[in-house]
Design goal:
Layout: H1 2-32, E1 35-38, E2 52-53, E3 63-67, E4 71-73, E5 79-81, E6 84-92, E7 96-99, E8 103-110, E9 115-118, E10 122-124, E11 130-132, E12 135-138, E13 141-144, E14 150-152, E15 157-160, E16 165-168, E17 173-176, E18 182-185, E19 188-191, E20 196-199, E21 204-207, E22 210-213, E23 217-220, E24 224-226, E25 229-239, E26 243-246, E27 251-266, E28 269-285, E29 289-291, E30 294-295
Length: 296
């Protein structure tokens, strides 16, 4: 009985010590976390200690800022940080930057052959244009607010991953700034408020997830492919340019659908309860058309 009691007390003491050690380690990690700003004293190299204020290459617990006029080149390694604020500066290079916290982008450029992973939230805000010439992968919740437009250039891919969300809360435009820019949606893309959001000619919009138009009009002008759902209940979806090839798995439903210049080849289900307006282009609906009210 005494021996059994000793074993229990020993086990509880061990667990208490282990828990205390974890708490202590967490406290040390929090204490070591820093806010670092790229100043580029000696070069553009992300991995140089002297290019940061305070000095030291950022680690996974650090918050990072790249401000206007500064270019941080992440090419010699991959990196992981906590939060990133890109406010008019440039992130470039061939490496992968993983942002585990929030990536706040109010203006500036992401370029190079590398990849940026927004793992803990993506906030596109402010009045500045966001220029994307690399892959930006959103795996969390993204919001696009305020008056700043997005330009996707050569090598640029904005990827809203499966299980992620990209919510538009403005009336701005995604434009082409180079060769073969893309917006790949495997998650949920929502036009939540406002009158008109346009994805301009030259920017392919590929949808294998869900597109939800809750307010105003979502205007797609750059073509693309899709196996996902388009739902414009209470709003309008407009195909205004380019060629869209939608598979049998794809669906279009909602209140108002406008074909105004695009070629849409859709072999999936079609259920538009308000009106379908064909003012230009070609609508090849070869799937299950439950409701088709055409105003030509």
């Amino acid at each position: 009985m005494v021996r059994g009691l000793k074993r229990v007390l020993s086990l509880r003491l061990s667990l208490f010590i282990a828990a205390g050690a974890v708490t202590a380690i967490s406290a040390v990690d929090a204490a070591l976390a820093a806010s670092r700003t790229f100043i580029g004293t000696s070069s553009h190299d992300w991995t140089s200690d002297s290019n940061w204020s305070p000095a030291g290459v950022p680690v996974a617990t650090d918050d990072v800022a790249i401000n206007a006029g500064k270019t941080a080149d992440l090419s010699n390694a991959d990196a992981a940080i906590n939060n990133l604020t890109l406010a008019g500066g440039t992130l470039t290079g061939t490496g992968t930057l993983t942002v585990n916290g929030t990536l706040t982008w109010s203006g500036g450029t992401m370029g190079g052959a590398g990849k940026t992973v927004a793992g803990g939230g993506l906030a596109l805000s402010g009045s500045g244009t966001k220029t994307l010439n690399r892959t930006l992968s959103n795996t969390g919740a993204a919001t696009w607010t305020d008056t700043g437009n997005i330009t996707i250039g050569t090598g640029g891919v904005l990827s809203n991953e499966h299980g992620a969300s990209f919510t538009v809360q403005n009336d701005q435009t995604i434009s082409s700034g180079g060769t073969s820019p893309r917006f790949d949606n495997a998650g949920t893309f929502t036009k939540a408020i406002g009158a008109l959001t346009t994805i301009n000619a030259g920017v392919a919009f590929n949808n294998s997830g869900s597109v939800v138009v809750q307010s105003g009009t979502l205007k797609l002008a750059g073509g693309g492919i899709g196996s996902g759902a388009f739902d414009c209940t209470g709003a309008t979806l407009q195909f205004s340019g380019g060629t869209y090839n939608l598979t049998a798995e794809a669906s279009i439903s909602g209140t108002n659908l406008v074909f105004s210049g695009a070629t849409v080849n859709h072999s999936g289900s079609y259920n538009v309860t308000g009106g379908t307006t064909v003012s230009g282009g070609t609508a090849n609906l070869t799937g299950d058309a439950e409701r088709w009210h055409a105003d030509c």
